[in-house]
Design goal:
116 residues; mainly beta; 4-stranded antiparallel β-sheet; 11 strands; 0% helix
Length: 116
């Protein structure tokens, strides 16, 4: 059974940092590209970042220079290091597996709230 489990969200002040993790199981992690997608209250999903396998990285303009995506294939874990957080980064963050056509598996999400 494929599982993706996010962790690391929370409440942080503007300018702060968080590191999200996504632990995966049930498939060969190193064989798949992975993404982070977020959804803010009242808005649609927004792609944040992606990482291929091996490890080419891609970022939305809104997070470029502040967020860093990485992966540890030995630990079956995807990461998102988020620095210089802004209130507009407040959202539920999901990790997703990139399938043949689009995202085929998603985690349950982790809430990130940026507020003073």
């Amino acid at each position: 059974e494929v599982q993706l489990v996010e962790s690391g969200g929370g409440l942080v002040q503007p300018g702060g940092s968080l590191r999200l993790s996504c632990a995966v199981s049930g498939f060969t992690f190193g064989s798949y590209d992975m993404s982070w997608v977020r959804q803010a209250p009242g808005k649609g999903p927004e792609w944040v970042s992606a990482i291929s396998s091996p490890a080419s990285t891609y970022y939305a303009d809104s997070v470029k220079g502040r967020f860093t995506i990485s992966r540890d294939n030995a630990k079956n874990t995807l990461y998102l290091q988020m620095n210089s957080l802004k209130s507009e980064d407040t959202a539920v963050y999901y990790c997703a597996r990139v399938g043949p056509l689009f995202y085929d598996y998603w985690g349950q999400g982790t809430q990130v709230t940026v507020s003073s």
